[in-house]
Write a structure and sequence with these properties.
Elements: H1 3-19, H2 26-31, H3 40-52, E1 54-55, E2 58-59, H4 61-75, H5 78-91, H6 104-127, H7 130-150, H8 154-166, H9 170-182, H10 187-196
Antiparallel strand pairs: 1-2
């Protein structure tokens, strides 16, 4: 094997290995979804907050966050605390704590994840149907990321490639991976590799 072939093999290994280090693990949010049967008072409170902040087609994230924060403080609502923690985790996806990763594109992608996490929990609280909530979350995530990726957001394209790879939809994963590769040599691509790779 010549030196060029060795470099290619090593580069391929590093790309594959690094792509799994900071990939969005959307399955984590689905695994953490709990049944909301156990505390009817808490569920009714949260359902009221959700109802006042819109519906699945038009959910006002800021309104919902403020309501969750209020009942967390005033009523020590554990369910609201858990939802807020998941939302915060979503906003910090992909090394967002590093200053160079705090770009508008990265923030847009993370806000999309956060919105979908709120939607997932809202749907579960209102309908208590885990399968439907999971489907709603996946549609939200894919739809939101697709819109951003088609607008040129490389962080969203990266997340889409990872989501489709995880779901074993290879043609879509390859499409978004190729889109990212086509941006190689740009400042956006270099930043993406620093933050996600």
């Amino acid at each position: 094997m010549n030196i060029l072939s060795c470099k290619r093999v090593i580069a391929l290994f590093l790309i594959v290995f690094s792509s799994h280090l900071f990939a969005i693990d959307y399955q984590t949010y689905l695994k953490n979804l709990r049944s909301r049967d156990d505390n009817e008072t808490s569920r009714a409170t949260l359902s009221g907050i959700i109802g006042s902040c819109g519906n699945s087609a038009n959910l006002d994230d800021d309104c919902l966050i403020q309501g969750l924060e209020r009942v967390t403080e005033e009523e020590n609502n554990n369910e609201a605390k858990l939802i807020l923690a998941e939302y915060e985790k979503a906003l910090n996806s992909g090394n967002f704590y590093r200053p160079e990763c705090q770009t508008e594109g990265h923030l847009q992608a993370n806000r999309t994840i956060g919105h979908c996490v709120l939607l997932l929990n809202s749907h579960m609280i209102q309908n208590n149907d885990k399968e439907a909530a999971n489907a709603q979350f996946e549609l939200c995530l894919q739809g939101g990321m697709l819109g951003l990726a088609y607008a040129g957001n490389l962080a969203a394209a990266y997340m889409l490639a990872e989501i489709f790879r995880e779901k074993e939809v290879e043609s879509a994963a390859t499409h978004w991976s190729n889109f990212i590769k086509s941006k190689k040599g740009t400042d956006d691509h270099e930043l993406l590799m620093k933050c996600y790779g």
